[in-house]
Amino acid sequence: MSAETSAWRGAAASQLVRADELKDAWAVLSVEERLEGLRLLTWSEAEELIRGLSAREQTEILLAASPQEARAWLRLLPPDDVADVVQAAELEERGRLLQLLDDTARHEVVALLAYAEDDAGGLMNPRYARLRPEMSVDEATSYLRRQAREHAGTLHYVYVLDAEQKLLGVITFRDLLMATTDKTVRDIMHTDVVTAAEEMDQEALSQLFAEHDYIAIPVVDRRGVMKGVVTVDDIVDVVQEEATEDIQKIGGTEALDAPYLQVGLAEIVRKRAVWLTVLFLGQLLTATAMSYYEHEIARAVVLALFIPLIISSGGNAGSQASTLVIRAMAVGEVRLRDWWRVMRREIAAGLLLGLLLGAIGLLRVLLWPTREEDYGEHYVLIAWTVSFSVVGVVLWGALAGSMLPFVLRKLGFDPASASAPFVATLVDVTGLVIYFSFATLLLSGTLL
Amino acid sequence: MSAETSAWRGAAASQLVRADELKDAWAVLSVEERLEGLRLLTWSEAEELIRGLSAREQTEILLAASPQEARAWLRLLPPDDVADVVQAAELEERGRLLQLLDDTARHEVVALLAYAEDDAGGLMNPRYARLRPEMSVDEATSYLRRQAREHAGTLHYVYVLDAEQKLLGVITFRDLLMATTDKTVRDIMHTDVVTAAEEMDQEALSQLFAEHDYIAIPVVDRRGVMKGVVTVDDIVDVVQEEATEDIQKIGGTEALDAPYLQVGLAEIVRKRAVWLTVLFLGQLLTATAMSYYEHEIARAVVLALFIPLIISSGGNAGSQASTLVIRAMAVGEVRLRDWWRVMRREIAAGLLLGLLLGAIGLLRVLLWPTREEDYGEHYVLIAWTVSFSVVGVVLWGALAGSMLPFVLRKLGFDPASASAPFVATLVDVTGLVIYFSFATLLLSGTLL
User: Fold this and answer.
1) Which residues of chain A have pLDDT under 50?
2) Are the CB atoms for A129 and B178 separated by under 8 Å?
3) What pLDDT score does A339 carry?
4) Contacting residues for A65 by C-beta, under 8 A, at least 6 apart
5) A252 to A115, A256, B320, B368: CA distances (angstroms)
6) Given an 8 Å threshold on Cβ–Cβ distance, is B154 in contact with A174?
7) d(CA A160, CA A135)
């Protein structure tokens, strides 16, 4: 354990622990130590710290706490966060957590659990302030005073619903405060409301928030009946999570779904082993491909020297292209139907980049001081072989790397699975074929 | 031009354009076509569309529009967004944009331009609602009614300042609406306000928003004087941008700073060429390294067959480790002082993954049907050489990939520069040395 942890332990012992110190040491503490730390804080400090934790951490704490503590802490959270906490628990412990809730809250949470975790329905809070259109501003104000006492948490907008719970409009508390008392709710409400469908996935939802600068977006079903509210603070977490997943996939790992240092060694090895094994099996094809050229290598060992250079250049160009396209797809800048525009652009970019690297490769061989000793009398031909191969491989890398995310999406897979290592492996095998084809073409009759 | 574009053009011609259609075609339209489209919309449709654009796109539109139009559209934006628009323009055009503002707004925008674009100061809106603590609830309400008429945009919180503009507390419009009239502002204000320092960078700021579920966070200077407000909707954009930059760097490209399809070909080639050239020069070392082993390859050509397999395994393991660590650092899960915990974990993970792949490699050679024809009589020794090398290279890849982001951060560089291709290149050269060292050790006296 680090010096920091023991410093925190010393402070805890002398009852002088501060919320900040606990937070700093948090990552390296066990659940029991965290619980012990929380008990030393004031109620409002503990409340703030608990609210700021991830659902997974909240679940661990609540399951380790006494039923009285767990009940009190669980009440701090809005129903959508409670649903996340329940979802983060093992199946057999979910019942225990639900038993800690009062009847109303349990009912709400169970309803939320029916939605997929990453749909609008799974992110929404089913509690929100509502008004009828025919209410006067005064009636609305005193009605909201009563409603507000029942609801914890901040309310940002008030929704105007008809008798069938269909959404008619929205007003802010500020509108209400600013309105003259002779107006009705209908007079002051905004009717051009941006809404989200229940089954909208969180990526689309985060794009909706990015387009419009709203703090909260109401969720409605197909008939326009209001179901709940998604707030932008949940979306910040969603955007972070989605980016993390994409980055991990691009790096060639399954999404970890938890902080790196908190995932157990067995879990992290398993999540990496799957892709690494698939890629290794793919790489075994390079050994097979190479064995077809064993004869050429035996006659001209000098060809072997440039194998890593050539296949890696293709891999690098490919991983650039695939990450650019994956990200552009994730943020909605590139759609499936844009494939042709992307392809034209990558052909042009790949060719230019290939020519640049090909020229460097050409000069490297032609101008190398010990070129005749290292590469033999035919070093000029070797130089051209390397140079042409680099152009071909870089072009192919850019093309394969940029098109693979489209193919994956078209087939219904996540484009982010076109990871840098995946593209590199794909390009390695074909890169060898390109290289030895140019070699056969240019060196037949001399070296080969 | 696509079918979609011409469909839009047809619609525009017949004056039937709808905001949604324009939005769908947006990416493929020229600035002039966009402007033409905007002029066909109603004022509120145009307003919504313009507000949803990136600063870069807003700037293009405003510079192409007539001064009257530009002036009207610029008034739609809060000062922090105007500052972004001005910053997105070329230096020589900034004056022209600033001239379109009225004196107060220009003064505010010029003050904001003094901050770095990605500091809290550069993201904040200098307009916010303020109150004095000694005001009664009634006074506060009527004062806010007057203030609200002057301020466009949504106000989320009201800030309580003393005579020196120091921040004392915060109240919501809801608090004010719910309060009985015998209270003063001081009675109902919340004093435990989370604030951000002016120079806090946007990554730290987004972590602050992720920890606390606030809609807006006030920015204060060193003396506690209130400077403005950062709202969470700006943070969603920040989080997206930061993730995009990291993903692009991980893929081995410089950050594009604009949507993929909108960056010119020359620009995109330039941004990729820099890293690709650096990596290519690095890869040239593999040719040099290989030439040291030319003698061994000439004696045992079979060794060449496994070169791509071995170096790529190391590259893949390295890019997994580096992306996991880079992302964990970006979201604050891993800090510099955690390097030793990460290193221990990557040694363990690298060893386990290496043993797994090494075992597959061993079996692949030992059980290959044509093993004696392809690999010769000493195929068992070849199998062990490949297997040991894979273990060594994967372990080394995981170690180098995970430690490189720490080294870069320690030296003051962006850890995301430890891109997958960079790590792969680094590991390639050392991978060759590892492979040929094992080969010399195991095959001396037989094949070598």
Assistant:
1) 1-16, 152-153
2) no
3) 92
4) A35, A73
5) 30, 11, 6, 28
6) yes
7) 10
- Identity at B50, one-letter amino acid code: I
Q: At residue B195, does pLDDT exceed 90?
A: yes
Minimum Cα–Cα distance from B357: chain A residue = A277
Q: What is the pLDDT of residue B172?
A: 83
CA atoms within 13 A on the CB side of B398: 25
- pLDDT at B331 (0 to 100): 82
B383-400 residue pLDDT tens: 999 999 999 999 999 999
The pLDDT of residue B182 is: 86
Nearest to A424 among B155, B305, B315 (CB): B315
All residues at 6 or more sequence positions from B160 whose CB lies less than 8 Å from its CB, including other chains: B130, B131, B132, B133, B167, B168, B169, B170, B171, B185, B186, B189
* CA distances (Å), origin A132, targets A161, A359, B152, B273, B319: 6, 73, 27, 61, 57
Between CA A74 and CA A98 the distance in angstroms is 10
How far is B137 from chain A, CA to nearest CA, in Å? 12
Contact A276 B317 (CB under 8 A): yes
CB A435 within 8 A of CB A321: no
The H or E element that residue A230 is part of is strand A226-231
pTM of the model: 0.75
Say if the Cβ atoms of B360 and A277 lie within 8 Å: yes
Chain-wide mean pLDDT for chain B?
84
DSSP B18-86: -HHHHHHHGGGS-HHHHHHHHHHS-HHHHHHHHHHS-HHHHHHHHHHS-HHHHHHHHTTS-HHHHHHHH
Considering CB atoms only, which of A174, A323, A353 is closest to B269? A353
CA-nearest residue to A1 within chain B is B341
**pLDDT at site A350:** 94
Q: How many residues does chain B have?
A: 448
Note the pLDDT of residue A318. 92
Q: What is the pLDDT of residues B272-293, one digit of tens each?
A: 898 888 888 888 888 888 888 8
In chain A, which residue's Cα lies nearest the Cα of B233?
Answer: A213
Report ipTM (2 d.p.): 0.74
More confident site: A430 or B180 = A430
By C-alpha distance, the chain A residue nearest B147 is A178
Q: Return d(Cα B125, Cα B108) in angstroms, integer.
A: 9
Q: Do B212 and A48 touch (CB under 8 A)?
A: yes
Q: Do A176 and B177 touch (CB under 8 A)?
A: yes
Burial classification of residue B180, based on how many CB atoms lie within 10 Å of its CB (0-12 exposed, 13-18 middle, 19 or more buried): exposed
State mean pLDDT over B78-91.
84
**The residue to which tokens 């710290």 are assigned:** A49
- Is B345's CB within 8 Å of A268's CB? yes
